[in-house]
Amino acid sequence: VAEHALDRDCTTLSRHVLQQLQSYSPEAQDLSAIMNRISLAAKLISRRLTRAGLVEGALGFTGEVNVQGESVKKMDIYANDVFISVFKQSGLVCRLASEEMEETYYIPENCPLGRYTLLYDPIDGSSNVDINLNVGSIFSIRQQQGNDVDGEAKDLLQSGHQQLAAGYVLYGPSTVLVYSIGRGVHAFTLDPSLGEFILSHEKIRIPEHGPIYSVNEGNFWQWEESIRNYIRYVHRHEGYTARYGGALVGDIHRILMQGGVFLYPGTVKKPEGKLRLLYESAPLAFLMAQAGGRASTGKQEILDVVPDKIHARTPLFIGSQEDVALVESFIQERVEEM
Ligand code: P6P
């Protein structure tokens, strides 16, 4: 019998947050309201993505180049603006740090009261939009510390342990929102007929080991030799399989659900790698740790890294405990060459 969300006691996201915190403290209320705004942004983006091929101005490029030096897709701008507008109305968040904006964006009317900062990648993997493959949004919530009088948002240059909440939205065959406020990892599936995210996976735990390694092997000859040795190891040993979608959120969700490891190593030319720390690797590391996994730069825990600038990059090795440890053993040359 087809089970419909209304047929069971469906738990919405904002209610789940309050259940998680088992309290109605001001901070609990704030986090619940913030997660509600995130879910509104996700619904608006999901709706536009499902009609991208039909709506004028949703596909293709704007002709501009963003702070990352990447050509800006129309969807990047739309999604970035959606987050700004839903949080402007929220009253809670006074600063937004986005992959799409060089400078931190201030919402002055929220600043005296709203002591939270949203760090986000509004649409990650946007090159997939034009070919109807999955894309994602990644978000992280921090408390503002101090008064940021110089507008430099220096208090954001702290380790990932400062995160109050983090998660992502995977716009795939269904739209799934995965989040944690430090009490486990939980997933909600959007029921478009209700316009609600309904709890679909509670207390997600990543397996200690998994068969998947996820990396762009096209960069093989740009890596350090130790990474090539890890790849040679998984090529030679039974039980490994390669899966790489080229869009971070989908690749990470597969690892979270099935186990294994996602790698975005630095190269000889760019040792810091491609992925950003504050609004990509740190929120994903927060989630993975909450699910019993790990995230490393190869030399230290991602959550311990203190960035020197908002758009700092970092190498990323993330997933099952055993698989991340194996990669690290090659990086630290603790494994004789096979
Ligand atoms: P490469 C997409 O452009 C992105 O930022 C992430 O979503 C993805 O994991 C990575 O870059 C893919 O990079 O070098 O493999 O194409």
UniProtKB/TrEMBL annotation:
Catalytic activity of the protein: beta-D-fructose 1,6-bisphosphate + H2O = beta-D-fructose 6-phosphate + phosphate
The protein's name: Fructose-1,6-bisphosphatase class 1
Protein's pathway: Carbohydrate biosynthesis; Calvin cycle
Record bears the keyword Magnesium: yes
Record-linked CDD domains: FBPase
Keywords: Calvin cycle, Carbohydrate metabolism, Cytoplasm, Hydrolase, Magnesium, Metal-binding
Chain residues that bind Mg(2+) 1: E99, D121, I123
GO BP term, pick one: fructose 1,6-bisphosphate metabolic process
Gene assigned in the entry: fbp
Domain Fructose-1-6-bisphosphatase class I N-terminal positions: 12-202
Quaternary context: Homotetramer.
Record-level Gene Ontology MF annotations: fructose 1,6-bisphosphate 1-phosphatase activity; magnesium ion binding
Cofactor list: Mg(2+)
Family: Belongs to the FBPase class 1 family.
Note describing how the cofactor binds: Binds 2 magnesium ions per subunit.
PROSITE patterns: FBPASE
Binding residue positions for substrate: D124, G125, S126, S127, N216, Y244, K274
Species of the source: Merismopedia glauca CCAP 1448/3
InterPro entries associated with the record: FBPase_C_dom, FBPase_class-1, FBPase_N, FBPtase, Fructose_bisphosphatase_AS
Residues of the Fructose-1-6-bisphosphatase class 1 C-terminal domain: 206-331
Locations listed in the record: Cytoplasm
